What we know:
Number of strands: 14
Oligomer: single chain
CATH superfamily of the largest domain: LD-carboxypeptidase A C-terminal domain-like
Low-confidence stretches: 4-11
Distance between the termini: 40 Å
Shape: globular
Radius of gyration: 20 Å
Number of domains: 2
Helix content: 25-40%
Mean pLDDT: 92
Amino acid sequence: MKSRRAFLEEVSLSALVAGFPDSAKASLNRLAAEGTPRTVRPRALRKGAKVALIAPASPASDPELNDAAVEVMASLGFVGVLSTHARKATMYLAGSDEERAADLNTAFRDPSIDAVWCLRGGYGSPRLLPFIDYEAIRKNPKVFIGYSDITAPLNAIHRLTGLVTFHGPNGGDNQTDYTLQHLKKVLYEPAAAGLVAALPPFAPREGATEKVNRLYRIAPGRGKGPLVGGNISVFSTLIGTPFEPDLKGRILFLEEVGEEPYRIDRWLTQFVLTGKLSGCAGIVLGKFSDCGPREFHASFNGTWTWQEVAKDRLGKLGVPVLAGLGFGHVADKATLPLGVTAELDVEAGTLKLLEPAVS
């Protein structure tokens, strides 16, 4: 006989997915019945790989940037193929929800495609989640990579299929040496990548110290568990939905750009109120670029920095928390694989991948 809690959760899930397409319902029902799926690693990227370039969120600000993304793929030794609707623009979206989801689904179903790379972030990718064919993805695992707004499908796909997905540079990005080095060691070889997201070294000299790339040790300790996370504002849209990632025993990584401390406070408070952060193995924060207070709030009686907000909200959870690592909305960004076991050491200021991300 089912427990009362299991019965209520089943009823709640049925109500949440009532309006979803059948493909999403099937995947969510399977998740409810079977629990967390086993981890599936996609094949490593090889020279000559055929890469589908899709736009799950916003269109390119300049149509030429789509062609530039194909050229970036060629520079990496890959064959970039623009998806059917990649050049569409519907207000701030790259086509309708159904069209954008169709491009993603088609790319995973196509046996000639080796990887699916998002052209850019922007807005709107959470709208796709009910239209994604998770069963097709589960049967056809391949590299799926992007960041920013792509946080939503990265986490939903990993949650429902077990596929390792990659929070890394978008397909239209020009990659720095740092970004390319991290991409290669995570995606090109079936071996544990080791140290990731470390800040670029500072060359010591008289009369100077590092001011840009600084670590913030918010809560001490070490933790080990599979990675999960992404952009904090987009990740928050998953909380309370059927696509919400499981945080228990995991290392949660979060980053942001252009948001004020009070908004970061709001999102972190939301996460704290769920009660689930205390079950994390650790929390890693990025650099939170341009996340200081704005001048029009000068009438406030002072304000916290984003680092102080993080310490106030996360410092008493009893889990290790480290801030300032290199991923997300920064030029030098690491590729972080969702679902791969990592080790966080706050005192050492390190995040290490302990197992391969690809097969």
